[in-house]
Specification:
This protein is about 20% helix and about 35% strand. The chain is α+β, with helices and mostly antiparallel strands and about 850 residues long. A nine-stranded mixed β-sheet has the order 44-43-46-41-40-39-14-42-45, with helices on one face. It has an eight-stranded parallel β-sheet with strand order 15-27-30-31-32-33-34-35. Strands 16, 19, 20, 22, 23 and 25 form a six-stranded antiparallel β-sheet that branches. It starts with a helix and ends in an 8-residue tail after the last strand. The structure holds alpha-L-arabinofuranose.
Amino acid sequence: MMINRLFFLMFCSLFLPLTTWSFHSGTSLKPDSAYLFAYASLNDGGRAGLHFAWSTDKQIWHAIGPDHGFLRCDYGRWGAQKRMLRPFVYRDANGMWHCVWSVNEEDNVLAHAQSEDLVKWQRQSYTEMIQDGNCLDPIVYKDASGNTTIGWRTEKEGKIQYYKTATSDFKTYSKAAVIDTLPTHREEIYIGNKREIGSINKVAWGEIDALLNAQALAAYKYTLWSEQTKDDHQRFASLDSLKADIHVQTGDPRKISDLLMGVFFEDINYAADGGLYAELVQNRGFEYRPSDKEGKDETWNHQTAWKVQGKGSLHIDSVSPIHPNNKFYAVLDLPSVGAGLQNKGFDGISIKQGATYLCSFFARALNGIKTGVEIRLVGDDGTVYGSTIIKGIAGNWKQYQDKIVANTSAVSATLEVKPLKAGTYAFDLISLFPESTFKNRKNGLRADLAQAIADMRPRFVRFPGGCVAHGDGLENMYRWKNTIGPLEERVPQRNLWGYHQSAGLGYFEYFQFCEDIGAEPLPVVPAAVPCQNSGTGGAGQQGGIPMEDMDEYIQEIFDLIEYANGDKNSIWGKKRAAAGHPEPFNLKYIGIGNEDLITDVFEERFRLIFAAMKKRYPAITVIGTVGPSADGTDYREGWELADALEIPMVDEHYYQSPGWFIHNQDYYDRYDRSKSKVYLGEYAAHLPGRPNNLETALAEALYLTSLERNGDVVHMASYAPLLAKEGHTQWNPDLIYFNNEEVKPTVGYYVQQLYGQHSGDTYFSSDIVLSESKPAVSKRFGVSAVKEEKSGDLILKIVNLLPTEVQTNIDFGDNIVLDEEATKITLKGDPTDLKCQPVEIGEQVSNKFKVAISPYSFTVYRIKTKMGVGS
Ligand code: AHR
């Protein structure tokens, strides 16, 4: 049955566009109604969510899928914690379907979602039912008075208790009451020889047909989206030559966004500390805590990266810190001279011969012995690569600083801090920075990495994340005020990706970097809810800032706007000025929320923030959020909220296979132009094994042709994540890999760079006629023509994701006067290539010219035009 549907769907796809399929059954004999069994598989602990099977006689059951997940639980931390146990499906008097389930064996919450058709499910809720105890095997029934009632079982230390609660809307519930037993039970059935436990409803056959169709469509899409170049030799076995005629409509210009290409910065993969932030000392403030790694790493504590060299002892104290925000410091007890503290940096300290390094520390001599301190850079064999002596360390906390010039280059030096007298000394914030940072900023950024980002010519920088922005639980939200001001007053914290954030790279540094590279700053603040994948502080995003604290939270967002844009005499503008920037940063955009689940808790808070922002700062564009994927409940309900509130722009996220990008180039063609604009804030093509190779890069390049075409709707887009330190990645693929010595841009980086360096603000549509019209072929050949008004240059991008060279005729028409000499840049190779780089040449062109477009290639032509023509 399933196979027949699939063939039918494939047949449909050849002749009908995806969006207009209709494949409901013909006239075969069908029952009027059947039994529908709802269950979560006993085999996978509920991880694949809600399944259905149907039967006409309750004897022989047919799984839909099998095991297709119609509704997946979103409770708890990423991955294994998201489970649906013992779902119970119930239809109310109005025909609305309700599903209730347990989220695990421990928690006291009842999970609920509702649906009109069993296919599209609405937002989930997780309500705490009792103070203490779990909530197992929930069922829905009518009590003797006809009230909708939910019953469940709790099991604690072998004791079983049954409870019930009444509800009229599945949002509010009466206080849980103890009952003797549950009045109804789940049923046990066999699907083939697989035993499953679930609930049975009798439904019209049409409803089962809809489920079958939904599953078959999903399965069909899955086959398309799983297409990979490794199968191209079969897929395109008969394609030995191909011709294309491209006619660029230069007489028909259309305005598009001039901010399309930007970057997404998140402190993931050691992107900040140990990465873009140029600090060379690891754990400089002794603030690493076992809780950064949830106590799972015994080597991770206040002394990580530090050790005592020679005779002496080190302990960590907190009785008299420099500042309460920076609680911990090191106390070094030296019975004799010669010993000191050593820090190995992040995988060693990389130094360059002749370069100057700024060293600084806070110190106190605790037993009244005034001393000097020698700071040295040394090799593993004790060779000194540079040193200085700082004198006069006395009884109170004071900051000391000096410079060291490296006498050699070394990949892995060690920093030593050696008091020149025996005694007891307190140290904190021991820092070493290259003098030469990006644009020579103090407390600045690693020059080569920052330059690699600048070279992409991003029009905006989104920061500080990603999930880091909304954090792992309420306590871990990224609060911008914690990250500004003197370093010793900033609040370090656990990074949700399993390490530590010093906050040395904070809001001031982000704003300054944006200004330095000519990019719009795009901060994202939490929508008063933490990350939905939180593992701490309760049930993920279902926790939010208490409503009574929302005014204060909204004020925090207002203060951010004042910090960025306020006069230098305003409260927060003064702090910006004190940091060295009296002029405003001219903030225009702010993201509220990061791919949050669109829950009631989220919506209530988002509405408040949005209304307040609109009233107080109407000129700032607020960017809302529509969940973590390209479809599904959060996407749908996020957009419904955006429509209702008329949010100016929303942030979409999707990580998909190359096949998805190939087959979804019409994604934005279908968008209503009168609705919110789109910021595609996170996207990337993912292959099994997660490489960033030519195949993923070309899929992204192809998709970007469609983003340029839809540049009236898609205002901004940023690949994610941006940076990854080798040996410290939590997420692949990324755009730029690096170690302490080298920056290693990926193939995908070059695609982003080519789009960034060759973007336009006017779009010309193109007619493409291929000698082979099969969708599999035409969807792999993409073209985009834009004009950069400032230079007057015409830019033509051609993506060929086919294994065949394409003999191409390009016709720009007669509306434009072109220079004969164009710049041509080509990125090409084998799809599995991880290292290919663009090659630039000069090439003769004219209004009509011929070119052979290489297999698996991305080609950019940049052609000077006579200014004004064609605009
Ligand atoms: O880009 C990596 C992560 O992906 C981001 O932190 C998060 O927003 C998304 O899930």
